[in-house]
């Protein structure tokens, strides 16, 4: 069965269909350009398609939705509805605002599924670095009152619900182990000594329970910014609670420098850019939300 899944994944991600792009879609009108998304659609074949919501990195204080345009286009060419989003950045995006924005974007996409030929019951969230942290937090703490978004889409969509799967690459899972980093302190809104409860609430590892959606973690073994031990610990905690969690570790891979076969060495690229990662992503999508 796993061989069949990998075969389907290879076929899915090899499709060359031209996507349709809908840009500057506001998922929360209150914050202007900070809360917009670009949606990439596969060809109209009369069917609803599974979707992927992509969340960029940048230390919670930088980055933009176009950073993931290439990935969204690639997914749409493969038959997935792909949306890449902006969210409020620090200081406006200080916890819990950034994860609330991500949750709002998920609610908006599901609420307007008919406009995008999307199956709202087959949506995976995918993020890199800070984005990998945010998708993990939203998936695991979606029903926590302190993280509930108050946007129009979230209120209209009813009770918040988790995505059908999560792909987190180089995403911090336990911010409490990074309490000395100034960027993390700025995002959380204070030091761990001053606001320890916020460090718990901002850490996906704090919310692991049985019945969580499947997770795929992707991590470079030489990541100098996010300790690979975080991903291993999170995978083990998820599995111990009875959840589906897998970890792809790339030997020699870092946070931004990763193996490039074309150069026979390292290149300035994210974990997502590697062929190994895309094989794992394709496999995960087929297993969790099905072939488009």
Explain the overall architecture.
The chain has an eight-stranded mixed β-sheet, sandwiched between helices. A two-stranded antiparallel ribbon has the order 9-10. The radius of gyration is 18 Å and the shape is globular. The chain has helices at 2-12, 69-77, 97-111, 130-140, 152-157, 182-188, 196-201, 228-240, 275-288; strands at 20-26, 36-41, 49-55, 81-85, 118-128, 165-169, 215-220, 245-250, 257-260, 265-268. With 292 residues, it is α/β, with parallel strands linked by helices. The protein is built from nine helices and ten strands. Helix 1 crosses helix 9 (275-288) and helix 3 (97-111) crosses helix 4.
Could you tell me how far the N terminus lies from the C terminus, measured between alpha carbons in angstroms? 18 Å
Strand content: 15-25%
Count of helix runs: 9
Number of E-state strands:
10
List its salient traits.
single chain, 292 residues, alpha/beta, eight-stranded mixed beta sheet, 9 helices, disordered N terminus
Short structural description:
With 292 residues, the protein is an alpha/beta fold.
Write the layout of secondary structure elements.
Elements lengths: L1 H11 L7 E7 L9 E6 L7 E7 L13 H9 L3 E5 L11 H15 L6 E11 L1 H11 L11 H6 L7 E5 L12 H7 L7 H6 L13 E6 L7 H13 L4 E6 L6 E4 L4 E4 L6 H14 L4
Parallel strand pairs: 3-4, 3-5, 5-6, 6-7, 7-8
Antiparallel strand pairs: 1-2, 2-4, 9-10
């Amino acid at each position: 069965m796993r061989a069949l899944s990998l075969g389907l994944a290879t076929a899915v991600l090899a499709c060359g269909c031209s996507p349709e792009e809908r840009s500057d879609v506001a998922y929360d009108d209150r914050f202007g350009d900070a809360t917009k998304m670009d949606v990439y659609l596969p060809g109209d074949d009369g069917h609803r398609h599974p979707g992927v919501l992509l969340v960029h990195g940048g230390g919670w204080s930088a980055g933009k939705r176009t950073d993931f345009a290439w990935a969204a286009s690639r997914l749409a060419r493969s038959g997935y509805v792909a949306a890449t989003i902006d969210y409020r950045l620090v200081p406006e995006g200080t916890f819990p605002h950034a994860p609330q924005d991500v949750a709002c974007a998920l609610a908006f996409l599901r609420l307007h599924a008919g406009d995008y030929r999307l199956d709202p019951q087959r949506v995976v969230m995918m993020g890199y670095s800070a984005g990998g942290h945010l998708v993990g937090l939203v998936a695991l703490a979606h029903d926590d009152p302190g993280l509930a978004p108050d946007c129009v889409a979230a209120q209209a969509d009813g009770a918040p619900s988790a995505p059908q799967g999560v792909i987190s690459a180089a995403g911090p899972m336990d911010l409490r182990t990074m309490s000395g980093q100034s960027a993390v302190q700025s995002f959380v809104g204070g030091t761990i000594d001053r606001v320890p409860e916020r460090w718990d609430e901002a850490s996906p590892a704090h919310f692991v329970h049985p019945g969580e959606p499947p997770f795929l973690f992707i991590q470079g073994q030489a990541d100098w910014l996010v300790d690979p031990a975080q991903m291993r610990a999170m995978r083990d905690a998820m599995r111990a609670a009875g959840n589906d969690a897998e970890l792809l570790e790339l030997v020699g891979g870092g946070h931004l420098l990763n193996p490039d076969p074309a150069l026979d060495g390292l290149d300035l690229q994210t974990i997502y850019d590697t062929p190994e990662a895309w094989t794992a992503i394709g496999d995960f999508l087929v297993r969790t939300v099905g072939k488009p």
